[in-house]
Design goal:
Helix 9 packs antiparallel against helix 10. An eight-stranded mixed β-sheet has the order 3-2-1-4-7-6-8-5, sandwiched between helices. It contains ten helices and eight strands. The protein has a single domain, classed as Spore Coat Polysaccharide Biosynthesis Protein SpsA, Chain A (Alpha-Beta Complex). Helix content is 43%, strand content 20%. By secondary structure, it is of the alpha/beta class. The protein is globular. Its main location: membrane.
Length: 229
Amino acid sequence: MATPPDRLAIIVPVLDEAGTLASLKNHLHHWQSRGVEVVVVDGGSSDDGPEQLRHAGFQVVPAPRGRARQMNAGAQATNASRLLFLHADTRLPAGADDQVRAALRPSTGDWGRFDVRIEGHSRMLPVVAWFMNHRSRLTGIATGDQGLFMTRTAFEQVGGFPDQPLMEDVEICKRLKQISAPVCLKHRVTTSGRRWDNRGSWRTIWLMWQLRWAYWRGTPADQLAERYS
């Protein structure tokens, strides 16, 4: 059977997420019910998360550990012409599938991202989200938390996500920008603020700016990943 030309697949990399899967399963079931293909890519979890997801009816693909490798494996596991890469702790807004299809029409764009809202305890999170949304609109560089989406053609043209342990989202955006400017959707995904809550807001903000600056200056992603960990 031929694949519809606007077939959309949501690709979700997971690793040891068993404790937080209830919300993710409900979210992904919603998109399945709307005809969206869902591909979950496990990077070698040590818990029973992958089995939970299989039991819930999702396609679970094994892959080498690493978000970039997992997302590339997910793209290879589907022949959908539209790809949306979703972090396990990020939730899409209502109608996201239709919004992505409209954004990726030949006359509209090749790739894009959503605005983001960060959910957590810190009062700094709305400020962080504001800067993320405006920075990505000014620079054309988005983060994986913003729900990156693209046509398969664009994905393959840039060689997929680069095989690096950090900043894979920044790097693929830099390459995609050579094809076209991103479509910036004002509809907001909601992502978890656990990184900021656990590490401290100011400490995390400062660390991320340091890492981005160092990456822009040419520091290898492997070295940055060690600092991030």
